[in-house]
Amino acid sequence: MNSPTLVSEYITPTPPIVWTIAGSDCGGGAGIQADVLTMQDLLCHGCSVITTLTAQNSVSVSLVEPVSEPMLLAQFASLLADLPPVAIKIGLLASQAQVDLLAECLTQMRMAQKIRPFVILDPVMVASSGARFNPMDLDFSPLIGLIDLLTPNQHELRRLCRHSVLAQHRTDEIDVEPSIESSNRSSIEINTFSTLQQQMINNAKWLSDSFNCHVLAKGGDALWQQQFAIDIYVSKVVKGASIAHDNASFTLSSPRITLSNNHGSGCTLSSAIACFIAHDFVVHDAIVLAKAYVSKGLALGFCPGQGAGVLARTGWPDDLEVMPLINLITSGNLAQAFTVKCAAHNGFTSLLQPLGIYPVVDDLNILKQLLASGCKTIQYRTKLDADADADADADCQARLTLEKKIITAIKLGREFHAQLFINDHWPLALKHGAFGVHLGQEDMASADLTAIADGGLALGLSSHSYFEALLAHQYSPSYIALGHIFATTTKQMPSAPQGVNKLTRYVSLFSRHYPTVAIGGINLSNLALIAKTGVGDAAVVRAVTTAVDPAKAYQALNHKWLQLTRSFPKVSLSVEGV
């Protein structure tokens, strides 16, 4: 396993521009100050539009004074003329006039400047000390169609669902303020927890539908959740991500941190999301990264004053222990959404040797040539005839042909003592005793992983983002595939090429725990870039399947890979405890 190259070697010299439109906290713990600190820590250039001046410290807020509308407009226009943003975080808005003015500004930005930044609204309403920032409940409906993500905490979620103009036409039940938060939480019954959590989910979904945007309902102030802080993430369609995660709802669970260094945690979360978006990560990724960033910041926070402490700024998250657990919320089975349903799968067979150069082929003749040339790990990827379903007899014949091909591939793998993985068709791989199975994200959710583990097979899982790689991690597979790294014509992909920058990020998070393999558009000319990221192995497709002599192409790739990886120091690899 290679030692990961420092990520800074790949970072663009010009940091992306992120705006914060929020109030000033002269105590430095929240608001504009917390946002700018976060942006700098996460390698972005932070710009600010100040909506409100506050006189506050770690104990109390003594005065709140909104800026004038001309000043608010002038700040926005001045930045837009010279420093257009990739992402915008909106925090404290002190009046309805500010909401309306900001809606006009964002609309004009899109129409006149044709700039479409990702916009996050963190509807700040109450300070950590309990002080009210807004004299009245604001109507955020003018921002519908202009924001991409809402990040309310429990208090804000309930207020938005009760007092929004849109809520006047709501027909489902709106929850009541849980008095349970101040009671003995150890006595909370499971049905009470489920009821409150279901209300939280319903409110988040209603808000997502009403504002036509993603919603991250935060659970940090939901003390009835007890030892975990469970956020509800309701997603819309996300370009560049798996369609399996479109229009879905998830729980994101982290151990609750009971330390009081939480001043500015909400501001930090939303500004961190904006930063990760600005670095070209999809919103799924940005949210889990930001949650990890806040968790570590809370754990390492400090108290500069007499009241609540502030978060530490801890840099890019590269520690699996602070990453949230992700679970899909399925209708009719709420309890499943709050357990790590996949943590029990630790029995997949480990790799007998590194994957190395890992060919993925769909032709049995090429498969045999590569095995005969010395390849010791290979994947056989074959599909059913797309036209077979139209006729029952043809479908039956196609399935028989498919099974015969897989039987032949498995026999060849045994003959050459190779680690042969079957792509997708796990029942046939299990039936005929393949070394392993490789599954994509969609297949991962439907496959019987317990049967695969009990059958003694190895498991490889695909991922195309942090979010997907974390889902794969929760199943403790034999290896995680990271891709696609470069543009490829092998198959149609919903995601954009990840590139070496992102690959290096993924490797820094996972390589200490799993064999990692890069895939997608890899060939002899870019193999050195792949090796430099520190990824353990490299999967190749067209680099061998379209070669005049696939065996010689494989040997050339393998020879160069060994040369490249020997130039890096090795690190130990352990999957235990993951």
Task: Give a brief outline of the structure.
The protein has 578 residues and is α/β, with parallel strands linked by helices. The protein contains 17 helices and 18 strands.
* Number of strand elements: 18
Q: Estimate the strand proportion.
A: 15-25%
Mean pLDDT: 88
As residue ranges, the low-confidence spans are 1-11, 179-188, 333-344, 570-578
Strand order of the largest sheet: 3-2-1-4-5-6-7-8-9-10
**What percent of residues adopt helix (DSSP H or I)?**
25-40%
Tally of helical runs: 17
Shape: elongated
* Gap from first CA to last CA: 17 Å
* Sheet of most strands: 10 strands, mixed
Class based on secondary structure composition and strand pairing: alpha/beta
Radius of gyration, CA atoms, in whole angstroms: 26 Å
Describe the structure.
There is one protein chain. With 578 residues, the protein is α/β, with parallel strands linked by helices. It has helices at 31-41, 69-82, 96-112, 154-163, 190-211, 265-278, 283-299, 364-372, 392-415, 426-432, 441-446, 449-454, 466-473, 499-510, 527-532, 542-545, 550-566; strands at residues 17-25, 45-56, 61-66, 87-90, 118-121, 149-150, 214-217, 228-234, 249-255, 325-328, 357-361, 377-380, 419-423, 436-439, 458-463, 479-483, 516-519, 537-540. The strands form 2 sheets. The protein has a 10-stranded mixed β-sheet, sandwiched between helices. An 8-stranded parallel barrel has the order 11-12-13-14-15-16-17-18, surrounded by 6 helices. β11 (357-361), α8 and β12 form a beta-alpha-beta unit. α8 (364-372) runs parallel beside α9.
